[in-house]
Amino acid sequence: MRGAVSVQGITKTFGGLAAVQDVSLDVKPGEFLTLLGPSGCGKTTLLRLIAGFEEPDRGAILISGRDVAALPPNERPVNTVFQHYALFPHRTVAGNIAFGLEMKNVPRSEIPGRVEKGLEMVRLPGFGERRIDQLSGGQKQRIALARAVVLEPEVLLLDEPMAALDLKLRKEMQVEVKNLQERLKITFVFVTHDQDEALTMSDRIAVMNQGRVEQLGTPEELYERPRTRFVADFLAVKNIVEVAVESVEGGKARVRTGGGTVLFAKDDGGYTVGGKAWIGVRPEQIALSGGAENSYPAVIDDEIYLGDCTDWQVRVGQDVLTVSEQATSARGRKRGDAATVSFPAEAVLRLDDKPAPPA
Amino acid sequence: MADSRATLRSSPGLALFSALVYLFLYAPILVLVVFSFNAGRLTAEWQGFTFAWYAKLLHNPQILSALRNSLVVATASTVACTILGTAAALAFHKHRFRKQAAMDALITVPIVVPEIVLASSLVLLFAAIGLRLGFFTVILAHIAFSVSYAVVVVRSRLAGFDRSLEEAAADLGAGPWATFWKVTLPGIAPGVLAGALLVFALSIDDYVITSFVAGVGATTLPIQIYSMVRTGISPEINAVSTILLAATSLLLFAAYRLEQGRSARTAVIPIVLSLGLLGAPFFLGGRAASGDKVLNVYIWSNYISPETVKKFEQRYGVHVNVDLYDTNEAMLAKVATGNVAYDILCPSNYPVESLRHQNLLLPLDHTALPHLTNIDPRFLDQAYDPGNRYSVPYFWGTGGIAYDKTKVGTVDSWAALWDARWKGRILMLDDPREAIGATFKWKGLSYNTVDEAKLFEARRLLMEQKKLVKTYNASNFEDVLLSRDVWLAQGWNGQFAKVMADDHELTYVIPKEGASMFVDSLVIPASAPHPELAHAFIDFTLEPEIAAEICRTMQYSTPNRAALPLLPAAIRDNPAIFPPDDVVGRLELIHDIGESTVLYDRLWTEVKTSE
């Protein structure tokens, strides 16, 4: 049980507004769990509830099987890496890392050794005597990590720790943090609004919206089978429309968009003939060529060059689709050109309008 | 940082402007420091380098004691305000109170309330709760007016303080107390320190409130300095100020080193030096012998020498507190509160009348004053106190003209102050009774004339004279004459006598038409806690040897006949100190003229503000 976090029916409101609504969540020992969502979705509040900076209105939190409701932050077996690092500016790097050890009454003679071990862990050996304002953003990030992990917490909480880093550094740190977690085998609860970060690092991801967890799953599950409009949208399934279901037969549903385009979708049992449904198609699963089951003539409206790939805005009848193509295959198309787009029925995801109420 | 520097360099106008601002800020301080080493008495003229004023300071127990008092008050209020202010600022920062805006406003009110209002309300409060004015009330008052500043300064620092640091500390295992000491306090330390320095500075130089709430044994440096205005501010004050400046600069420097995160060792030397300077007055000049019994004397500065006080202390085995005031009005206000414990006061003649009418004086027991017979009868039984039931003359003096005889020849009439030949070389006392009175005297009238038509005529004469007058001054007129900014000056003899000792081209005259005379007397307030000892003190000052010593050390005219033979010839034969008998007959006391005072004040303001 050491390292397990169990969030049970937690609700937290601020001035009448619910920041976290009846959330239940189990984090397994040693797991890297990410809380993903836009700002205001309640992910940071949930993290702060676990850390003890906020008190829940309702519900219980168990860490390593123990109810921590009565414990102030300084007595909980968790440590936090803060969004803006929260390093103590009046202490040196070593002084920052030593802070928690001093508070835990680690014998004085042991502290320097453990501090240096912490610095090695984040690959900054010998940085102990530096002042905080002499560090770069990435170095501060690592010191904040070291400060937390030297205390060998049962759970490490990370609040958007990379939000302030530039893209390149963020990619490096993602790998480093993930490696660190695998080495230490500590449970990580990681908060981010960056879906790429979440997909790269996590064992499981909880996508949060308006104070609730809309979907919980592994990165693969989420990527391949987003359940709701919100989760699909957040995970960059760009082509999301409402459709009318015309027929369901042979494991396929025939649906029509508001723009009049008719397409086939793999039936997951959620389509009702004569009813409405929401569907989504990932841009990278649409080809700018014929051949797949759903195939349409189209006109190129716009081009968004993204370096490693290009997003094309194409018009199919009254509908507009986003098609993503690897840069190597972008072949001198320009606006106004005619093209063909196609995608298989398996690429069409059926989405719930609202999340199912918690079981 | 680099950017702002580049901007400054690229606009020389701004750099010049900044330099001017600094010059404006620091030039006066620089002048003060330089002139604390000036051999001459005058601040206007450099007469060679000397440490003399610092040496004299070491032997001036009054200034040292005032400095001690100021430092104790400032330190106590700084410690109290820093703790209270920081705690209050933290409370405001952490909790949202109901009526937050009102609370915010209430905290800042003491900053904007006029000092005089706060001062009077504190006096009332202390009286209401039965707290005797003294040292403790000064500390309380200083805390009351400074704590808001501490709150405001610390709060502004807290506003920029990253609260997540406190959460980080808690997260790392620190409880609330450890979080405060190890994270919050170091984070806001610059603000706390700035607040402390501000409170210290406010306390060190507060005059208005202190003068209201100070009681026995609570004469601070600003009160000491103001009280010296009447008898002459000496350059020792420049020396005191320079020492204070050096000490606080060293403290600031130490704070800066610490703030920079240097090791504490680099701050040790400035801190030790600073504390050495500030602590010196506590070891120098010795503390007066302490006895069980005390006598509390409230008197003008430079009116009694420390040696004389010491003799009395030794003879009676008591401790004497000497506190100072700068105007009769300040003393009257303090005594009128009925909340001070003074045994001896030294009012001028007309305030004696006013104290008498308010029943604030104790009738004297003449059997306890056997040496009263030593007083020259010419100074006894005056209109302000018939039969000397309440007062015993202590010093007397005259208001005449001092001038440079090498420049204006011989002067024997007030008419000289209206002589067009001395245009721009004349100084008049900035005092309605003396200036208007001298005009009356010139025209053969009394200093105490209250006839309106005659007063308007006097105003006309003074307005006519104005184009000849260089300046109106009642504080350091003797220095203005000494520096020869003027050649003729109306003024009181005591101050003139001091500068005439060094400058033999100056002389002092009582004009043939007559001049004003004042008598400062010792009295015992009705509320005196030690009336017997107070009688003993008055009689002590009447003894010939003691009266002669007081006269010799303070250089004011003594009314004590028996003391005259014991005085050195230089003083006894100085016509500025002891005018000849025929001249004394031409002197007139200035009386309390009741409601006419208002008209005097109005006419005098009109003269000074006329074109």
Overall description:
Chain A is α+β, with helices and mostly antiparallel strands and 359 residues long. Chain A contains eight helices and 19 strands. In chain A, the strands form four sheets. Chain A has a six-stranded mixed β-sheet with strand order 6-7-8-3-9-10, sandwiched between helices. A five-stranded antiparallel β-sheet of chain A has the order 13-12-11-14-19. The longest helix of chain A is centred in the middle third of the chain and has 18 residues, at 167-184. Chain A starts with a strand and ends in an 8-residue tail after the last strand. Chain B is α/β, with parallel strands linked by helices. Chain B has four domains: 2-52, no CATH class; 56-284, MetI-like (MetI-like fold, Orthogonal Bundle), CATH 1.10.3720.10; 293-395 and 522-561, 3-Layer(aba) Sandwich (D-Maltodextrin-Binding Protein, domain 2); 398-517 and 593-609, Periplasmic binding protein-like II (D-Maltodextrin-Binding Protein, domain 2, 3-Layer(aba) Sandwich), CATH 3.40.190. The chains are: A alpha+beta (359), B alpha/beta (611). The interface between A and B is medium-sized, with 26 and 19 residues.
Query: What is the strand tally of chain A?
Result: 19
What is the correct CATH architecture of the largest domain in chain B?
A: Orthogonal Bundle
Q: Give me the Rg of chain A, rounded.
A: 24 Å
CATH H-tier superfamily of the largest domain in chain A: P-loop containing nucleotide triphosphate hydrolases
Q: Structural class per helix/strand content of chain B? A: alpha/beta
Number of helical stretches of at least 4 residues of chain A: 8
**CATH uppermost class of the largest domain in chain B:** Mainly Alpha
- CA distance, first residue to last residue of chain B: 53 Å
CATH-defined superfamily of the largest domain in chain B: MetI-like
What is the strand content of chain A?
35-45%
